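Weekly sync, protein design subgroup
Attendees: M.S., D.O., the rotation student, P.L. (late)

Item 1: inverse folding check
M.S. brought a backbone from last month's batch and wanted to see whether the design step gives back something sensible before we order anything. D.O. pointed out we never logged the input encoding, so this time it goes straight into the notes. Structure tokens as presented (143 positions):
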């Protein structure tokens, strides 16, 4: 089973439950500066497979406020740099770290591909683009 992150243009990043949860945890660790960051961190913790069950973890960034989309992306970039610097220290199974880091790098590459205007089919873990739900999800919508 796997979990996913849907990006702005419908492409999606998929990973095993544990790998997705590990990525979300690393991102959450970077969201501790402002009240808005902490609210997003709390919300992201609730999107994990650990909370929702195997195969039920997901984040659709299109459902987030513009501010939270940016906070999530910036936190992911910081989390990746932190993971590179710390390496496999603290990992239960350090041999999984290189592949996990490569998958994390793939997520960042997907965002850059969106910035360059590349078609989603060019770099996508799914066979097709995900249709937007039209929902508003996460903190900040109620304001």
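Designed sequence read out in the meeting:
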């Amino acid at each position: 089973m796997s979990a996913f992150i849907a990006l702005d243009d419908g492409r999606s990043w998929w990973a095993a439950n544990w790998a997705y949860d590990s990525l979300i945890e690393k991102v959450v660790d970077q969201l501790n500066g402002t009240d808005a960051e902490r609210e997003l961190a709390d919300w992201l913790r609730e999107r994990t497979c650990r909370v929702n069950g195997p195969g039920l973890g997901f984040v659709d960034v299109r459902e987030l406020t513009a501010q939270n989309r940016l906070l999530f992306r910036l936190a992911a970039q910081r989390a990746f740099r932190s993971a590179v610097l710390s390496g496999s220290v603290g990992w239960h199974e350090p041999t999984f770290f290189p592949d996990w880091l490569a998958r994390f790098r793939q997520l960042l590459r997907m965002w850059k591909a969106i910035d360059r205007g590349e078609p989603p089919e060019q770099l996508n873990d799914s066979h097709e683009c995900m249709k937007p739900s039209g929902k508003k999800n996460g903190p900040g919508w109620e304001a």
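Discussion: The CA atoms of residues 14 and 53 lie 16 Å apart. The two ends are 36 Å apart (CA to CA).
Action: P.L. to compare against the previous round before Friday.
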